[in-house]
Amino acid sequence: MSIKYEIQSIKNSKGTGKEQEFVRIFENPPQTDRQLESHIQDNCSLTKGDVQATLMTLRDSMINELSHGNRFHIPEIGYFSLAVNLDMPDDKPMEKVRGDYIRVRNIKFRPDAELLNEVKRNVRFERAKFSSKSSQYTEEELLAKIKEYLTTNNCITRRDLQQNFGLRQSAALKCLKHFTEIGILKKEGARNSPVYFLNK
Predict the structure, then answer these.
(1) What is the CA angle 8-144-151, rounded to 5?
(2) Fewest CB atoms less than 10 Å from the CB: which of 56, 57, 59, 121?
């Protein structure tokens, strides 16, 4: 199955005034624990119980090794290691750094070369026919669309703005808040699922 992608851009990238384009892929949800257990059981002699026990032991081993500052290697997969930050008051001199100023930020992963190359050989990309970006409207254009929508519908919701006007959730909420504050729309209903009407 092809991985869907879209091209986005950052305006005034690095203060140069130019746009920098980048690729955004649409990731599918990960397989569930049960799906993983079933897949392993179907492809080797391990039962689901064996898989569960193995994964829990692997997890315990990883915690133990990383907690002692060691890299952790899973054969044919790759290496895990700690990423840390120095969280120290600004007025403290460097020679006063103590161990309790160091925090674990994340766990890094570096795949084995063979795994990475295998993924590269198998992956396929296909440009998405949809976009995660909000459609761009002027305030007048968006208000006109809302009024047109309300000629055939009793009210409008955040979900309606997303589905009908191509807005992302944050943009839809910002729009509704703005038109409510300036008195064009009025908000009614439950706090977690409000509806909006034209303020006549």
Answers:
(1) 125
(2) 121
Q: What is 75-88 written as a DSSP string?
A: TTTEEEEEEEEE--
Amino acid of residue 46: L
Place of tokens 């119980």: 49
Q: How far is CA 160 from CA 35, 144, 164, 171, in A?
A: 34, 15, 6, 12
Closest CA to 162 of 147, 149, 150, 173: 173
Closest CA to 108 of 64, 76, 62, 75: 62
What is the DSSP annotation of 80-116? EEEEEEE---TTS-GGG--GGGEEEEEEEEEE-HHHH
What is the DSSP code (8-state) at residue 54? Answer: H
The pLDDT tens digits along the chain (200 residues) read: 788 887 877 765 566 667 778 788 878 888 999 999 999 999 999 999 999 999 999 999 999 999 999 999 999 999 999 999 888 777 777 777 788 788 999 999 999 999 999 999 999 999 877 665 666 788 898 899 999 999 999 899 998 988 888 888 888 899 999 999 999 999 998 888 899 999 87
